[in-house]
Design brief:
160 residues, alpha+beta, Ubiquitin-like (UB roll), DNA polymerase, domain 1, five-stranded mixed beta sheet, 5 strands, binds FE2/S2 (inorganic) cluster
């Protein structure tokens, strides 16, 4: 039987009902209609479902929605500032960090989570942070290039 819960998603308090076994991924996509977060493997292996839960990147298919009760969740829909893309999103566009795009929301959320914790990562740290995000198209180099460029752009903005 569905039970009530409350999660702050992209800064907005959302109250809804979900089955006790419902994953955070399914709650976001099916209850809140936030389909930017992708469902790939549904078992923690591909990273397509990555969101920030209280600031930490998590695979939302492995989190029960009810365990996120009273938490803060950020999805890819919550990154842009009105019409202006988040620097990580912009860098993916500028550096060709995507092809089919299925993995992209998850990769971007992993990158945003990394840059919140470590604003100036090395290439190795970037590769480690996205190690759980599978991409069949890009070969990863342009993704890494994009994340390093985003880090630089965010640093420059802070200094400006
Ligand atoms: S859908 Fe969650 S890790 Fe693949
Ligand atoms: S861009 Fe196609 S899976 Fe990554």
């Amino acid at each position: 039987m569905k039970k009530p819960l409350q999660i702050t998603v992209n800064g907005e308090i959302r109250q809804f009902f979900a089955e006790p076994y419902c994953s955070l991924l399914d709650a976001l996509r099916d209850e809140l209609l936030l389909t930017g977060t992708k469902k790939g493997c549904d078992e923690g292996d591909c990273g397509a479902c990555t969101v920030l839960l209280n600031g930490q990147a998590v695979t939302s298919c492995l989190v029960l929605a009810h365990s996120a009760h009273d938490s803060q969740v950020t999805t890819v829909e919550g990154l842009a500032d009105h019409q202006k893309l988040h620097p990580v999103q912009q860098a993916f566009v500028d550096h060709g960090g995507l092809q089919c795009g299925f993995c992209t929301p998850g990769l971007i959320m992993s990158a945003v989570g990394l840059l919140q914790e470590n604003p100036n990562p090395t290439e190795e740290e970037v590769r480690f942070a996205i190690g759980g995000n599978l991409c069949r198209c890009t070969g990863y180099n342009k993704v890494v290039e994009a994340i390093l460029a985003a880090a630089q752009a965010m640093q420059n903005k802070l200094k400006a």
